[in-house]
Specification:
The chain has nine helices and no strands. The protein folds into two domains: 1-50, Arc Repressor Mutant, subunit A, CATH 1.10.10.60; 59-200, Tetracycline Repressor, domain 2, CATH 1.10.357. Helices cover 77% and strands 0% of the residues. The radius of gyration is 21 Å and the shape is elongated.
Length: 209
């Protein structure tokens, strides 16, 4: 079998499965339907993945790589390095916009991953392990650097990171599923307000005597 043709068929099956699983769910999607939409024989799916469950596991493995390596670690580190000469608000704004773009571009995989993450202990454990040992450190290192340089208050960087990540995740969920809540504001305006709150706090500054 031609290697290029083999790779193309396998990729088509994966891409088609992502689309159909995210639209209809795993249980309601048949291998026959995947084969028809991918324009391959149904037997080709079983040749590469052995079963529909094997196909899902291949997708989950791929989505773990995207979520942890690309969405969380590699591109996050790239953004922080690229924007290093800018002020903190611009750095964090670039980071949030980068997260939104990456999740939007990979949303079908992200949707499948987080749906299965609830029920599959092995995937959940791997995700948590990678997040706590690698992903979180990228942000805590940035926060610790700001504390050392006296740009940030001396607060536990893990707590700060949790607040920042929680804010980003909440914004992504709201932006994706209920955008009408803040429809009077552009995305840039929403991010600016979030960062103003994150960097400057909610309380009015006390009057100077």
């Amino acid at each position: 079998m031609n290697n290029k043709n083999s790779t193309d068929k396998k990729q088509r099956i994966l891409e088609t499965a992502v689309k159909l699983f995210s639209q209809k769910g795993f249980d309601k999607t048949s291998t026959k339907e995947i084969a028809q939409n991918a324009e391959v024989a149904e037997g080709t799916i079983f040749f590469y993945f052995k079963s529909k469950k094997g196909l899902l596991e291949a997708l989950l493995k791929h989505s773990v790589e995207i979520i942890v390596q690309e969405l969380i670690i590699n591109s996050l580190d790239d953004v922080l390095k690229k924007e290093d000469s800018k002020d903190d608000k611009e750095i964090l704004k670039a980071l949030i916009k980068n997260r939104l773009d990456l999740i939007q571009n990979n949303f079908p995989l992200v949707k499948i991953f987080f749906s299965e993450l609830i029920y599959k202990e092995d995937f959940r454990s791997k995700f948590i392990e990678l997040m706590t040992t690698t992903g979180i450190k990228v942000i805590t290192n940035y926060i610790d650097k700001g504390i050392t340089e006296d740009r940030f208050r001396n607060i536990n960087s893990l707590i700060v990171t949790r607040c920042l990540v929680g804010m980003i995740i909440t914004h992504i969920i709201q932006n994706k599923f209920v955008p009408q809540i803040l429809q009077d504001y552009t995305q840039d305006e929403q991010i600016d307000m979030m960062l103003d709150l994150f960097l400057n706090g909610l309380l009015n500054k006390p009057a100077v005597n």
